[in-house]
Amino acid sequence: MRRFAVRLLNLFRRRPAERELAREVDSHLGLLEEEFGRRGLTPEEARFAALREYGSVEYAKDLHRDARGFPWLEQSLKDVRFGARSLLRTPGFTAIAVLTLALGIGANTALFSVVNAVLLRPLAYRDPDRLVTILHGGSDPVAPANFLDWRGQSRSFELMAAAEFWSPNLTGSYPPEHIRGHRMTRNLLSALGVQPLIGRAFLPGDDRGVVSNEVILSHGLWLRRFGADPGVLGRKIVLDGDPYTIVGVMPRDFAFSPFWAPRGELWAPLALGERALSRGGNSLRVFARLRRGVTIDEARSEMTAVTARLERQFPGSNRDVQITPLAKQVVGNVEAPLRILSGAVGFVLLIACANVSHMLLARTSSRQKEIAVRMALGAGRTRLVGQFLTENLLLATLGGTVGLLAAWWGVRALIALSPANLPRVETVRIDASVALFLAGITVITAMLFGLAPAMHVGVDRVAEALKEGGRGASDDGVRRGRLRAFLIASEFAMAFVLLTGAGLVLRSFIAIERIDPGFDPRSVLSMVVSVAGTSEAEPGRREGFYRELLAKAQALPGVRSVSAINHLPLAGDMWGLPFLIEGGPRPRPGELPSAVYRAVMPGYFETMRIPLVRGRGVGISDDKRSPGVVVINERAADLFWPGQDPIGRRVTFETAAGAAPTWLTIVGICRNARQLDWAATPYPEVYLALLQNHDYLERPQPHYAYITLVARTDGKPTALAEALKQTVWSMDRNLPISQILTLEEAVSRATAQPRFEMALFGAFAAVALVLAAAGVYGVVSYSVSRRTHEIGIRMSLGASARDVLWMVTRQGIAEAAFGITVGLAGALLLARLLSGMLYEVGPADPLTFALASLTLIGAALLAVWIPARRASAIEPVIALRSE
Amino acid sequence: MPSEDVGRMPVLQGTLDLIVLRTLSAMGPQHAYGIAARLQQISGDLLQLNQGTLYPALVRLEQQGRIKAVWGKTESNREAKFYSLTKLGEKALAAETERWRRMSGLVEKLLSGEA
Which of A2, A54, A61 lies at the smallest CB-CB distance from B65? Predict the structure, then answer.
């Protein structure tokens, strides 16, 4: 052990050790000489005798060295030093190869760090494999009574829990803040298997009970609002006007919910109260932990039985209930795109490898003479190959190192670009597994690009190679040529696949960008103003406050018009509520028509510039004193009154049997506006007058006690934000303002995922295109430089410049074209995989395929043209002399 | 020159370390040449040993901490590296000697057919 350490240490003490050895050998020889001198030899004879007695000095030194250090390690270090010197001798080659590899390795590492965080790393809950969600249609919320029945009647689950969105106003300390969080059943944290960092979870109890005012803070909120003070436990804070006691703080890496209403910061127990009996008002997301040993299929069949029984009992209440593994729910619609992008970025690396590979091939060819000399001097084939492999590994390591820098930058770019619905994006980082991945692909890369050239190192006929004057044996040249053609063709095949993929995604993105939002998003600022828990929320005051706020905002300089809505399209919540049509037959429960429910202040359609097809919008006179009105969108008109005129018809949202409903008269039909999903066909939608709406004017619940202001401005909408905020606070300093954003931002967020996919695909395809072009350029110009002599002969024998141009061009283009043909199959396959991500573009879109192949051929032509021109400009006389 | 060296034998694998330790123990601090000379003297030139081949043994023993080296002057005022036994070396010598004795005894027994 001790010896091992000393030997290892000696690796770094070579020079002093060598000096000392030389000194010792000298002294030894001196002593021998002395001895022979004493025996009567002349000094010269003595020296000779000493040397003979001693044996080979170099051999002795070698023995010393072997015992001193690790011979094999020294050998490899020598190889590394040699490799480094040889790479430094050709800085141009090295720089290009390293950059090419860095691009490939960096892009792969960056994307892997995203894939790792989003798809691969297990959810930060205990045994996440056993966690599932139980939702209508796999994604829609559940009614409280159904949840309680499921929990009571199923046996497959260790724990079944539920949560609903909750965003209270934190007041009593400045600034007032609208905070996102959840109300959760008391067992939810246990079901997830997580514990607070400090304090405790909610105590077990009846979720049907009355509100218990306890809250648990997220780590972020604790840091931001309470300076990470451990003394917050037991402190009271004011939420929506009520005092709540802080009982716990969650750990830093706790995130909830993982898929819907993410980034919650505050949690309180759910108190269902009278809602426990409700089979409407679906607001709960149900989470469950499978009992150990119970498979998801067993749980599914049990739940099918439970829900079928309930459906018979309460028709329309228990349809299409699906159990989904939580992990799958989380990655939902990003899994497929991320996988496809990973494949695409892998192609980029392969192309980079192919490029470096033929750069190396050209290099080994021109080093043929060096190799031959070394073989003639006794270097074994293994040693030479070992040496080249070391050199490749060195090259790959350099590429990997630069690639790590590129990845570091790339990860930041990816995060900045990533759509808001990319789950767990906040956990993306370069960690140990990413480092391992980087090391792995670096080695694999070295093997990939080094394999072909290394196989060609063995020149069997040393003498021939020496005679050839460094130009390589000719049949060997043929083999090499075939390998190069293969590399070029595969580069173009892969580039074609990427380019068609990028083209399809781009075409789809253009189609998405062209979608008419149904309103004019330019120059509109929006912000959420919440009155929950403040004195403005009191039933008598809310209407006056809203009217006054709008009037004051309207008077601000730069404001063209201003209005408000409950839920802003694209960025806000979206409720679908069932309604009854007057005079129609009463549908069975669960089969009522439903529509997206909006409540708007006067002037909403004008401010948003949503065109009215018929009738009128919601006006200033539509208040509590006048009869109820409603504006519907075209989709609703087509769906519920096909071929009829809906204007003047009446509907109601008070659907309970036996109630005396408030009827609303349809006064206008507006164009369809985008709702939540940018590319989806809009649902039927209704706009009620907020000033006529009991819920929005009277009810204290926070989800009724806020409005979203929309203001159309003359100049830049963001310039208005401060003035608008001050207007609100001039009326009440306690009003929380949140989600300040322009409608253009809302639109851009709604299209973030396709933009993300397009940007990445586009970048990969661009890199692939450049690399493939550079590859064919490199190969052809190399071949021209080696064939100068031959071209000279051809030209002196009568070949014209055009013949030469054609000969050279043909060589590169043929391979590129062959590659594209082969790539077609791959491209069609990729297009099929992509079809789920495409909007209004067929996967086999002929225009995309044609453009992609034209682009590639064009790039190849350009790349080949430059060396071909050079070849055709060769002066035969000079060429013949060139050797 | 092997043909001239009939009768000289190579150092038995693995015994060189023991011989060096023993020599240093008997002679006190000594340089490589001194050790080599002593070996030749004792073996009556029977051992075939290029003096340079002593080095690996010296390096090994030094790395194992069994001997230590200091630069000093010979009687003829020439500088040389003097090796001497350490405590660890003394212990190793005792153990190795014991082992060697048992080993050679066993071989002797086998060869003389007593076993």
Answer: A2
pLDDT for res B4 = 41
**Higher pLDDT pick, A321 / A67:** A321
Sorted by sequence, the CB contacts under 8 Å of residue A375 that are 6+ apart come out as: A381, A384, A459, A462
Contacts of A90 (CB under 8 A, 6+ apart): A363
> Which residues of B fall within a CB distance of 8 Å from A28?
31-33, 51, 80
| B73 DSSP β-pair partners | B79
More confidently predicted of A232 and A45: A232
- Determine the average pLDDT of the residues in A576-595: 83
Q: Coil, strand or helix: which one is A453?
A: helix
| Residue, of A419 and A305, whose pLDDT is higher | A305
Residue from B33, B67, B82 whose CB has the most chain A CBs within 10 Å, to mutate: B33
In b/e form, how buried is each residue of B43-75, taking b as 16+ CB within 10 angstroms?
A: eeeebebebbbbbbbbbbbbbbebbebeeeebe
Mean pLDDT of chain A: 88
Q: What are phi and psi of A292, to 5 degrees?
A: -55, 130
> What whole-number distance in Å separates Cα of residue A61 and Cα of residue B52?
8
* Helix H or strand E encompassing A556: none
Q: A674 — phi, psi (to 5°)? A: -60, 145
Q: Choosing among B51, B73, B74, B78, which should be mutated to test the A contact, i.e. which has the most A CBs within 10 A?
A: B51
Q: What is the pLDDT of residue B114?
A: 57
Task: Compute the distance between CA of residue B61 and CA of residue A42 in angstroms, rounded to an integer.
Answer: 36
C-alpha span between A414 and A345 (Å, rounded): 13
A31 with B33: Cβ contact below 8 A? yes
**pLDDT at residue A833 tops 50:** yes
Helix axes A432-455, A381-417, angle to 10 degrees: 140
* pLDDT band at residue A734 using 50, 70 and 90 as cut-offs: confident
Rounded Cα distance between A439 and A442, Å, is 5
DSSP character string of A110-168: HHHHHHIIIIISPPSSSSGGGEEEEEETTTB-B-HHHHHHHHHH--SEEEEEEEEEE--
Distances from the Cα of A169 to the Cαs of A186, A224, A669, A738, B79, in angstroms?
Answer: 22, 15, 35, 10, 89
- The residue among A299, A355, A36, A22 whose CA lies nearest residue A150 is A299
Is the predicted pLDDT of residue A265 greater than 80, yes or no?
Answer: yes
> pLDDT per position in chain B (115 positions), as tens?
333 444 555 666 567 888 889 889 888 888 888 888 888 787 776 666 667 678 888 888 888 889 998 888 888 888 888 999 999 989 989 998 998 888 888 888 888 875 4
Least confident of A202-206, A502-506, A637-641: A202-206
Candidate from B53, B63, B74 with C-beta closest to A63: B53
The domains located in chain B, with CATH, are 2-112 (1.10.10.10)
Q: Tell if the CB–CB gap between B32 and A60 is shorter than 8 Å.
A: no
Residue-by-residue DSSP string for A7-76: HHHHTT-HHHHHHHHHHHHHHHHHHHHHHHHHTT--HHHHHHHHHHHH--HHHHHHHHHHHHS-HHHHHH
Chain A positions touching B56 (Cβ under 8 A) are: 63-64, 66-67
**Residue A57 burial (C-beta neighbours within 10 Å; 0-12, 13-18, 19+):** middle
Select from B31, B37, B56 the Cβ nearest to the Cβ of A63.
B56
The enclosing H or E element of A536 equals none
- HSE-up (13 A, CA, CB side) for residue A489: 15
Provide the number of CB pairs (under 8 Å) joining chain A to chain B.
Answer: 76
Q: How confident is the model at residue A783 (pLDDT cuts 50, 70, 90)?
A: confident
Relative to beta strand B47-48, strand B9-10 is parallel
Pairing outcome for strands A242-249 and A214-217: parallel
Coil, helix or strand at residue A667: strand
Reported pTM: 0.77
